[in-house]
Design goal:
about 100 residues, alpha+beta, two-stranded antiparallel ribbon, 2 strands, about 30% helix
C-alpha cells in the first residue's frame, strides 16, 4: 500500500502490462472488493525520466493496516532481487506483518 506523504519516497520496479493483466491484478489486489483503488501516478526513474504508472491505494487507509507475512516477504525478496536501496530494504524488514 502506498500512502502519500510529502518528503517520502516509494521504491519499486516498473512492469509493462496488458489490459487483461491489469484486470487480473485488480482482482488480486482487492480492487473489485473496493478495498484498494488503482490510480495513475507519475513516477520518476533513476535516470530522471517521468513515467505514468498504475498504483494501488487503500480505500480506507488506517495506521493499523499491516501486510500479511507472506506478502511482506515477497516484497522484501523482490526488493533484494531488483537491487533496490539497502536503506529501503532495511525499512521493509522493520515493518510488522500480520501472521497468516
Amino acid at each position: 500500500m502506498v500512502v502519500p506523504e510529502k518528503g517520502h519516497t516509494v521504491h519499486g520496479v516498473l512492469y509493462t502490462l496488458q489490459d487483461h493483466e491489469l484486470e487480473k491484478l485488480d482482482k488480486h489486489e482487492g480492487a473489485h472488493k473496493r478495498q484498494y483503488v488503482r490510480r495513475t501516478i507519475t513516477v520518476t526513474t533513476h535516470e530522471g525520466d517521468s513515467i505514468s504508472a498504475e498504483c494501488y491505494f487503500a480505500v480506507s487507509p488506517s495506521s493499523g493496516l499491516r501486510p500479511r507475512r507472506v506478502y511482506l516477504d515477497l516484497i522484501i525478496n523482490g526488493a533484494k532481487g531488483h537491487n533496490l536501496s539497502p536503506a529501503y530494504i532495511e525499512w521493509l524488514q522493520s515493518l510488522t506483518a500480520v501472521d497468516d
